[in-house]
Amino acid sequence: MSQSLKADNGSTVEVQSRGAGPMLNDVTDAIDVGAASDDDVHDRLRPTAKMATSRRILITSKNTGLWQAEQDEETAAKVTELLQQDFEKHHVFFNSRGFHNHITHYLLTLYGLGAPISALETAYDANEHYQQKAISVKHSVVTELQRNWSANASNYLGVGEHYPDFLAFFQLEIDEKGWEAVLSEFVFQDTSKSRDIYQRLFAGICHPLIQLQFGLEWEQPALIAAALAQAAVHDNSLGDFFDKVDAAVEANDKSGAEVPHRYLSRVCEEIRSSDSPLRNAAEWKDSDSLFDGVLARTLKEAIELATSLRVEEKDLDERTAEMLHHNAYVSAASSQYPPRVPRYDFFLIHSLNASLFFLSLDKPFIPVSGRIRLLEHKMRYDVLQYIARGCPLLRMSTIRECSTHVMQEAKLPVDLLPTFQNIFDDGHVVKVVRSLLLAEETSSEWEGSRWMRLSNVEDWLQAHRMLLRGVQGQNDKWIYGTGFTSAWKDMPLLSDSEESSDDSDD
Questions:
Q1: What is the four-CA torsion angle of 20, 23, 29, 34, rounded to 10 degrees?
Q2: DSSP per-residue letters across 260-311
Q3: What are the Polar residues biased-composition ranges (predicted)?
Q4: How many angstroms separate the CA atoms of 276 and 282, rounded?
Q5: CA 41, CA 23: separation in Å to the nearest integer?
Q6: Is 426 helix (H, G, I), strand (E, B) or coil?
Q7: pLDDT tens, per residue, the chain with 506 residues
Q8: Where are the alpha helices (DSSP H) in 148-191?
Q9: Which of 455, 343, 466 is nearest to 396 (CA)?
């Protein structure tokens, strides 16, 4: 079905839905065409067969993402085909509880790690059957968003059923302005509109941020539109906290206070060993340990701590590497609780996986101020999540002394890749693997830095082995709240030969 929509300037936009999906025409007479002739507009917007658009995904063998694995055109064509199917056929959530569709992440991660076609097809088939079907666009909603976002968006933000409407809106925006300009407007500028969207990127344990990371990393306008739409249908549950921290930071800056430089891992280690109210802010009984625990019981202390987590422009690249390294360290170190089998924490791995977003931000259209603002928000979010998981013990000995007895013949983390690529879940495992690999690579540029914890290849290999021991052959692969003793009571035991000499610390 199709419908003609009127833009603010009176130009006509033809919107079309393909079947049940929220897809629009490949070429749209965009809004704000001004005095341009029809031919000029058509030429400007006409996509070519070898061009990714806001509705068409196109992955090439040369574009394998940050890890830069080798791929061939046949595999590139297959991942493009599967990604397009997912994009057209499925909703962003696969159930009424807002659980996320991970197919895009899974396929691009496998592809970006050099996996073959067989792995891509198996991963897709394992996850396609339970997805929610795409639903039709409500064209009247798209019209309202186009006419006046500021006045009308609040009627639909945070509502999952409006995902196709926001997707259609962002597709039209990208058709008109280009994906770079749309990201600038809705994420990287410092306006009330962009502030609302980038705060929502951290909702749903950072799933919108992770989705945007893949779109930006592979420069796929369709995935960028999907990520912005995904952010739009999440509640801005952290917005009040972020706003209060921003206000406190602004007050400090106006007073001329010195910008502190606090290392993330040291901050978490100090909270763990302190008598700060933050140490026990979250409790096992909390239905949501972040909101019902940390932000309900210790909001003042959390704001004070978050205000101290700052980034100066001269340190931007190093603080980005530190943030990624910190999340790798926290995820690995907190996964050990002898005599239980190591288990990475489900919430903490999302902080780790979302960290890769920041490796794709060094682009001309992204202002340094926008990169700094988002990085500071991410650092604050990471510390909140650590506290919400019960402030698990962090020390390198838990990694170095863990005797998992898996893949002892491996000399490098990449030696484990074929094994990981054949563990088929919903994509979380290989995403963690890729994040660890990129964390190691990025950290190597800052060897000897004070924030460094995993300092050699054996440390990183151990982190991968611990992950493998916890997921291989296991139905339940993650722990939820690794800092709480109660979370571990039903976890499987290590064999006698595997038990670490390191004692757990409750």
A1: 110
A2: P---HHHHHHHHHTS--GGGGSS-TT-SSIIIIIIHHH-HHHHHHHHHT---
A3: 1-15
A4: 12
A5: 21
A6: coil
A7: 333 333 333 333 333 332 333 333 333 333 232 333 444 434 444 555 579 999 999 999 999 999 999 999 999 999 999 999 999 999 999 888 778 999 999 999 999 999 999 999 999 999 999 998 989 999 999 999 999 999 999 999 999 999 999 999 999 999 999 999 999 999 999 999 999 999 999 999 999 999 999 999 999 999 999 999 999 999 999 999 999 999 999 999 999 888 889 999 999 999 999 999 999 999 999 999 999 999 999 999 999 999 999 999 999 999 999 999 999 999 999 999 999 999 999 999 999 999 999 999 999 999 999 999 999 999 999 999 999 999 999 999 999 988 777 778 899 999 999 999 999 999 999 999 999 999 999 999 999 999 999 999 999 999 999 999 999 998 899 999 999 999 999 999 987 556 544 444 44
A8: 149-152, 163-177, 179-183
A9: 455
Q: How many residues comprise the chain?
A: 506
3-state helix, strand, coil in the chain (%, to 5): 55, 5, 40
Task: Using the structure block, give the residue that is written with the tokens 């079947």.
Answer: 19
Residue that the structure tokens 């050990």 belong to? 336
pTM given for the model: 0.89
